[in-house]
């Protein structure tokens, strides 16, 4: 299958690209500004810089017509909360406008589309959130993702929006996540302070990437909205201590701190753990493991 991957140069995009190649797909890889190639196994994939936030969305449509993908995995985004806050107009163009354009293109041609959204469409705290629970984001980033979900549902009800929780895994690209940076510090014997009062349901990025690719391939493609997260509600402190222990690093270097004592540009939600009941109904074979098992069994 010829699959377009947006955000191919990003941290999660590298996991998605690897999974698509492993499963034998023809990949059209779009990046924001990054040029060059990505090599996986014996294949080299050229990254094509595409400005999804360009005001003239007809340029995007023309390029879509040229590459004519059979399916799209839309992972590109202004994904940093700080970046979205600093430039909300660009976040609106990339996160909302481009998603709507891709959705309409796929709807008119009956092509499959998976859009990666976020658990940060929720704010505040509460029990693990279901897809039907009201979303009230406190961050500009979360607001753009929620608007993108709603616009996509209007123009393409057959598309799938996937709300992803905080992800972890050892990077496959030159992009380092917060998780990678913390582990690098621990490996150098430098202590890191992490929040004990911010809760997510962390998911293993390579496992998530494989799941999304399997959905694109499935004879029964799901639509609508689904939550994807790991099996446990964890703080960042818990996540990194578990990862450090199974990777042979000193978990005592992970020190507790509190989000409530930290100043941000916008209020951060304290608990956006996701209920993944629908995920397991859609894919009963999907059995996410604990952080320790994921990292040790897959060495990633």
Automatic annotation (TrEMBL):
<dbReference type="InterPro" id="IPR036291">
    <property type="entry name" value="NAD(P)-bd_dom_sf"/>
</dbReference>
<dbReference type="Pfam" id="PF04321">
    <property type="entry name" value="RmlD_sub_bind"/>
</dbReference>
<comment type="pathway">
    <text>Carbohydrate biosynthesis; dTDP-L-rhamnose biosynthesis.</text>
</comment>
<dbReference type="InterPro" id="IPR029903">
    <property type="entry name" value="RmlD-like-bd"/>
</dbReference>
<dbReference type="GO" id="GO:0006556">
    <property type="term" value="P:S-adenosylmethionine biosynthetic process"/>
</dbReference>
<protein>
    <recommendedName>
        <fullName>dTDP-4-dehydrorhamnose reductase</fullName>
        <ecNumber>1.1.1.133</ecNumber>
    </recommendedName>
</protein>
<dbReference type="GO" id="GO:0048269">
    <property type="term" value="C:methionine adenosyltransferase complex"/>
</dbReference>
<keyword id="KW-0521">NADP</keyword>
<feature type="domain" description="RmlD-like substrate binding">
    <location>
        <begin position="1"/>
        <end position="282"/>
    </location>
</feature>
<dbReference type="GO" id="GO:0048270">
    <property type="term" value="F:methionine adenosyltransferase regulator activity"/>
</dbReference>
<comment type="similarity">
    <text>Belongs to the dTDP-4-dehydrorhamnose reductase family.</text>
</comment>
<dbReference type="GO" id="GO:0019305">
    <property type="term" value="P:dTDP-rhamnose biosynthetic process"/>
</dbReference>
<dbReference type="InterPro" id="IPR005913">
    <property type="entry name" value="dTDP_dehydrorham_reduct"/>
</dbReference>
<dbReference type="GO" id="GO:0008831">
    <property type="term" value="F:dTDP-4-dehydrorhamnose reductase activity"/>
</dbReference>
<keyword id="KW-0560">Oxidoreductase</keyword>
<comment type="function">
    <text>Catalyzes the reduction of dTDP-6-deoxy-L-lyxo-4-hexulose to yield dTDP-L-rhamnose.</text>
</comment>
